[in-house]
Design goal:
327 residues; mainly beta; L,D-transpeptidase catalytic domain-like; Immunoglobulin-like; 2 domains; 4 helices; 20 strands; globular; signal
């Protein structure tokens, strides 16, 4: 099944979309506006002298439009989580702005920013974050020349438990490790393959390091991604799928199998998603944090680094090349 989404420009370059697809556009994950996040205090300007004409206030040249993920009071995130900062306009001097973005974890780890568009920059660590800590992000945009009227913005993230899932599409299992220990082994069925578009078998699950991006207790999945909307078409489907945890922008989920339980743990029969047992899917949905790691192996289709939050597909040297700062 396949999700119908408004693909990001980078994803439009993909040879084809994948697997499961929902009927509706994915609900935007909560990201705070700059005005909603904790901000530093600024000293008010003195009032103009009597009879003087006040000069028009200067507008800020650059502000933050969105920060993902949410802060410590709203959610706990997984050890692979990225910090995604979107500005309200294109950034001309990326190096200067990047130098004003600080990340301070309680348990230090090397990290770097990568620009993915003129107004969006993403922070990823060299190795996974340590679990059970707070990470403080601060944007000192008031120090940008000509941007003194802007208030600095900060957000503190809460890292939860280390949850890393290993999906083997050849032996049809998903092993979920919490803090290094095997918490559960779940029988699964992955993409069966056999539907090629633009040279890509879109029925194959993508192999690589995915991150969980969001979840819905019930997701409506349809065949409209294939252009099939007529219920009389034998390829048509529209199903309500429980316990759906999204792991890519191209439509891949870990979710409860809609029947066909006889294939779980035995063969791959999905359109690209990872189907799981009812009990296993519900358990995984319940514990899932955005930024948890889901490593999938066993297929010939490689996950693209810009498909969702799949930034760990780039090695550390490749990732750092996206920074505007000199080494």
């Amino acid at each position: 099944m396949k999700r119908v989404t408004r693909m990001l420009p980078a994803l439009l370059a993909l040879a084809a979309a994948t697997a499961c697809a929902a009927e509706s556009v994915p609900a935007p994950q909560p990201g705070a506006r700059a005005a909603a996040v904790a901000q530093s205090t600024t000293i008010p300007a003195p009032a103009p002298a009597a009879g003087a004409v006040a000069a028009p206030a200067k507008k800020a040249k650059l502000e933050i439009a969105d920060i993902t993920p949410m802060g410590e009071k709203t959610e706990k995130v997984g050890v692979g989580f990225p910090i995604i900062v979107t500005f309200d306009r294109d950034v001309k001097d990326k190096a200067t702005v990047e130098a004003l973005l600080d990340v301070e974890p309680e348990k230090p780890v090397e990290g770097a920013w990568r620009w993915v568009s003129p107004r969006k920059v993403i922070y990823r660590t060299k190795t996974y974050w340590k679990p059970y800590q707070k990470v403080l992000f601060t944007a000192r945009l008031s120090e940008l020349p000509g941007n003194e009227k802007t208030k600095n913005v900060s957000r503190r993230f809460a890292v939860g438990s280390q949850q890393i899932s290993l999906v083997n599409t050849r032996n049809h299992t998903m092993k979920v490790y919490r803090n290094g220990k095997l918490a559960k082994k779940i029988a699964i069925s992955a993409g069966k393959g056999g539907f090629v578009r633009n040279g890509v078998d879109v029925y194959l699950t993508t192999s690589g390091t995915h991150l969980t991006m969001g979840k819905k207790a019930v997701e409506t999945m349809t065949s409209s991604w294939m252009g099939v909307t007529d219920p009389k078409d034998p390829r048509y489907y529209k199903e309500e799928i429980p316990w759906a945890v999204r792991i890519s922008d191209s439509g891949e989920y870990v979710h409860q199998s809609a029947g066909y339980y006889q294939f779980l743990g035995r063969s791959n029969q999905s359109h690209g998603c990872v189907r799981a047992t009812p009990a296993g899917a519900k358990w995984f949905y319940t514990i899932a944090q955005r930024g948890d790691v889901v490593k999938i192996t066993g297929t010939k289709r490689k996950l693209q680094w810009n498909n969702g939050w799949s930034y760990w597909q780039l090695n550390w040297t490749q990732w750092k090349k996206g920074s505007a700062l000199k080494p």
